[in-house]
Amino acid sequence: MSDPPWQTIKKLAHDRARGRCEYCQTDEINIGQSMHVEHIRPGEGDDSDNLCLACPNCNLSKAAAVTAVDPEIGQEVPLFHPRLQKWADHFAWEDDYTLIRGITPIGRATVIRLKMNRPRIKLSRRRWVQAGLHPASEMKG
Question: What is the pTM for the complete model shown?
């Protein structure tokens, strides 16, 4: 059996993530750019368990990395794996849903490596929350 065409893989990743970055939770509709299909573990193929949807910032910041240093414990740890781990187990929203805080070594290392809290991203999140468009707005419910 042949591998599914890339468009099918891309649609699967997009649908599974509901159009949101699986790292920072940014919604594709808010950024006006296409999300990337990211290889969680580069070099390990296009199997759907190795793919996730990522915003351009997270994908380009992660690059080929699979580990990073947790600034709190000073040790290298694996980055967050969206297929194997739950977001809420490693991250929490702060500052009215504009800042992502890592709550585990994996979360902290991932926040730093993927530059999830750049000032311009925090400003965008603030505007999305105010407009009721950021996924975090659903948590206010």
Answer: 0.91
